[in-house]
Specification:
alpha/beta; three-stranded parallel sheet; 3 strands; about 35% helix; elongated
């Protein structure tokens, strides 16, 4: 029986800076390639834990849809690096957060 190797990532993330946080995700994937099967990132890691300002119009802009380019990049990286991942994020589903 083969055991699943799980990694917990505690890299810095920046509030409301998805591109920086995506770079951190890819950095962790590159560093972990061949060593883990699953990487786990923290709650709301993609946008930053304190990214909501509780103004719906502003928060709706930072939220990410499942069909977004950001999610597509994450899916592509799982195949490229051979690592599954759990990434906390704020989701937008049409007009709902």
């Amino acid at each position: 029986m083969e055991l699943m190797r799980i990694g917990l990532v505690s890299y810095r993330c920046e509030n409301r800076n998805i591109e920086f946080n995506m770079s951190q995700i890819e950095r962790a994937l590159m560093a972990s390639k061949g060593n883990v099967d699953l990487l786990c990132f923290g709650e709301a890691f993609l946008q930053g834990f304190d990214s909501l300002c509780w103004d719906y119009e502003a928060d709706k802009e930072i939220a990410v849809e499942l069909t977004s380019e950001t999610m597509n990049r994450l899916q592509t990286w799982t195949a490229k690096y051979g690592i599954s991942m759990v990434v906390g994020y704020i989701e937008r589903d049409r007009e709902k957060l």
